[in-house]
Amino acid sequence: MTAGARMFSGVLLVVLILVLAFLLLPIVNVVAVSFTPSAIFDLPRSELSLRWYRQLWRLDSFWESFFNSLKIALLATICATTMGILCAIAIVRKRFPGHAAVELLITAPLMLPGLVIGIALLHALRSIQIYDALTGLLIAHVVITIPFVMRSVIGSLGQFDFVLLDAAQSLGMRPDMAVVKVLIPNIAPGVLSGALFAFITSFDNYSVSIFLTDPRVKTLPIQMLNYLDEAPDPSLAAISTVLIGMTVAILYVCDRMIGIRSLASE
Amino acid sequence: MARGPGSLTALLALPAGGYMLLAFAVPLAMLCAASFQGPSGFGFENYLRYLADPYYRSIVTNSLAIGLGTTLSTLAIAYPAAFAIAARPAWQQTAILAIVFVPLTVGTIVKSFGWAIALRRNGIVNNMLVGLGIVDAPVQMLFNVWSLAIGMTNIFLPFMLLPIYSVVRGIDARLYETAESLGAGALFRFTHVALPLTLPGILAGASLVFSLSTAAYVIPLLLGGDRFVTVPMLIANGFLNTNNRALGATMAVILLATTTLVLMLFNRAARRSRFAR
Fold it and tell me: How far apart are CA A115 and CA A133, in angstroms?
């Protein structure tokens, strides 16, 4: 390697380290601040404290919104995964006219601002006299999570050879058993990682939810915006750290399932 | 045969397709219709009124400027970074991708909040600047154009980095060597080998970042203060506070039309640049 090339690769390495540090700074900062013993957002200096996590334990509005988010995210993920798997199979088989249009319709929410989806649904629900916040949130979160499941399942179905189903049947397996024993195990990793992404997308969503919550029913991100507005204290950093932990755990499972590289190529 | 395997498979698309039609396509169509519903009937009245008003026009310009600025700043960082990642050994690349995926998956509110406390007078960024001797005393960094730019760049960087990285990874390194052995200088190798080959990635990243950052709501709210009113804030206000639905619907359709147009133009350009190879 020439001296010039060595210097160039050295510069690239410095760039890389700086960029990664920049990407992680807000997250690392939040986690560090959540362990502060002080009442303002200072980094802990001499000692770490769980004061703000204990505070969280006593915060009723936090738990209420946490369970709202959990309930909505679970239900939305179940609905989206069921419908998404079925539709992904139909689209991969391409045996009907207009399959491209259906695929576009179902993946479109990925490309649209969440805000627009939120107000469109608010407008539509009010015009048919639906005022219940949980119903509206659930309907909306299924819309925004279906694309994640679809994308991931279409990806793993693309690698599945449907001839295997015929082969299983010609060897004497019942058609339904062939699906259970051959198709499902093959697409399970894709389904699981799609479902986990759907879950975290729903759990973190604010752009759609902000229009569909009401003063009594709030999701966790909307409650966080409220805290930020009214009385910000380091318990917000503790909530954020819990969310970050959840995200990292889900990413870890997805990586085990289908690998970080195929996540990146999606 | 009416119930052949083909038509049965098509039925599987029915639940999701029907659901998205009712819960997504129809509401969007209703919203568009509402934007054309003015005080004196159906027409372009709302559009003419709001786009003629200098205040609303300045807000649209604000949003477009934020989108364009974020696209350029993420591109400036992501482009060299993508080459830097691709230059590492394979196992390191996987680890780096994992690091990029964490901020991509962590929610926007958490990251904006992270920046809001990092950029405080007594926050980690000011501490570092003072510690390194770059500034003498903590500077005001929050609620101005800098905090907004830092937050937007940080949050949308992965959307630029991943598409560019995925094309950079696919470039055969021997192309550079061949160009060099044929006498091409470093600049020529960049403009005639690297740039055309990475253009599809740049366009894909740029269209994503532009449409996402133009529609960003929480980041300007938490980091820009109230000096930067953006279209999403206006939309949210129209529906949540002032109950001016005509304004909200009209601005939403303008936002939707702008981002869709940009996405389509960039995708077409990306396809062309791929065919031109």
Answer: 17
Using a pLDDT cut of 70, give the percent of chain B over it: 96
Q: Cβ atoms within 10 A of the Cβ of B61, count?
A: 12
Kind plus residue range of the DSSP H or E element containing B54: helix B54-86
Q: Residues B125, B141: contact at Cβ < 8 Å?
A: yes
* Distance of residue B212 Cα from the nearest chain A Cα, in angstroms: 7
Q: Please identify among residues 101-160 of chain B the ones whose CB lies closer than 8 Å to any CB of chain A.
A: 101-103, 105-118, 120, 122-124, 127, 154, 157-158
Q: Encode A53-63: b = buried (16+ Cβ within 10 Å), e = exposed.
A: beebeebeebe
Q: Which of B6-10, B231-235, B250-254 has the lowest mean pLDDT?
A: B6-10
Identify the closest residue of chain B to A102 by CA–CA distance: B17
The model carries a pTM of: 0.89
- What confidence score (pLDDT) does residue A40 get? 81
Cα–Cα dist A97/A95, whole Å: 7
Confidence class of residue B35 from pLDDT cuts 50, 70 and 90?
A: very high
Asked whether A227 and A190 are in contact (CB, 8 A), the reply is: no
Of B30, B123, B157, the CB nearest to A127: B30
Half-sphere exposure in the Cβ direction for A48 (13 Å, CA): 8
- Identify the CATH number of the domain in which residue A211 sits: 1.10.3720.10
CA distance B172 to chain A (A): 17
Cβ-defined contact of A83 to B158 (cutoff 8 Å):
no
> Which candidate, A213, A216, A215, A237, places its Cα nearest to that of A41?
A237
Provide ipTM, 2 decimals.
0.89
pLDDT tops 70 at residue A180: yes
B100 chain-A contacts, CB cut-off 8 A? 20, 23, 264
For residue A259, is it within any domain? yes
> What CATH number should be reported for the domain whose range is B43-88+156-275?
1.10.3720.10
Number of domains, chain A: 1
